[in-house]
């Protein structure tokens, strides 16, 4: 990698990090409140980073989001649930890292198999988004099902249906956003990168 290309990558890391920070702290830019939960759109930034910088770069940018989520759970939570579930780094950090890893490797694999660039980007965006949703909610169920009365004021039998409801109301729209928006942003950045 030439020094010029390395500098370009560092600029992209800085850009994606700045966007993640802004999305975390400017209302409605990264989280759209819907009742007690938030529809997250920050995952699109992580997915785009993975598509442009590769799985490792996406993992780093996702890790930055995860660390911010972890710290915010203590000092400025995004929801009442965040103070309970996001203080666990397996819930707040690991899924964010894996968004980038899954999206990046999915794109590489599909591109290698000869899929059209748009479809490869779109499917990578969809799977990256679902990775976050399924890991966060799956780990909430795994780690906190014994505390469901505290978390949701519902009994243990109702926790699983509740989490499925969150998948339907938040996870599916987030996945659709990831699949539709990620290619629109990543494709021009990839074209620009190839010209360099």
TrEMBL record:
InterPro entries per the UniProt record, alphabetical: ECF_trnsprt_substrate-spec (IPR024529)
Question: What UniProt keywords apply to this chain's record, in alphabetical order?
Answer: Membrane, Transmembrane, Transmembrane helix
Q: Which Gene3D superfamilies match?
A: 1.10.1760.20
TM spans (from-to): 12-32, 44-68, 80-107, 119-142, 162-186
**Name this protein carries in UniProt:** Membrane protein
Which organism does this record belong to?
Answer: Ligilactobacillus pabuli
């Amino acid at each position: 990698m030439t020094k010029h290309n390395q500098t370009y990558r560092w600029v992209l890391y800085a850009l994606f990090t700045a966007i993640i920070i802004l999305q975390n702290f400017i209302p409605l830019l990264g989280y759209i409140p819907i009742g007690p939960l938030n529809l997250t759109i920050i995952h699109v930034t992580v997915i785009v980073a993975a598509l442009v910088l590769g799985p490792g770069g996406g993992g780093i940018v996702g890790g930055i989001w995860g660390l911010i989520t972890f710290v915010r759970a203590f000092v400025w939570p995004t929801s009442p649930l965040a103070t309970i579930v996001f203080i666990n780094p397996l819930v707040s950090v690991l899924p964010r890292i894996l968004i980038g890893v899954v999206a990046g490797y999915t794109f590489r694999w599909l591109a290698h198999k000869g899929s059209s660039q748009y479809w490869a980007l779109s499917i990578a965006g969809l799977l990256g988004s679902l990775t976050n949703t399924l890991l966060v909610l799956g780990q909430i169920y795994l780690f906190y099902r014994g505390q469901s009365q505290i978390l949701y004021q519902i009994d243990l039998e109702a926790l699983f249906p509740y989490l499925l409801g969150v998948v339907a109301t938040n996870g599916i729209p987030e996945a659709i956003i990831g699949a539709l928006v990620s290619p629109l942003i990543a494709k021009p950045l990839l074209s620009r990168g190839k010209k360099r």
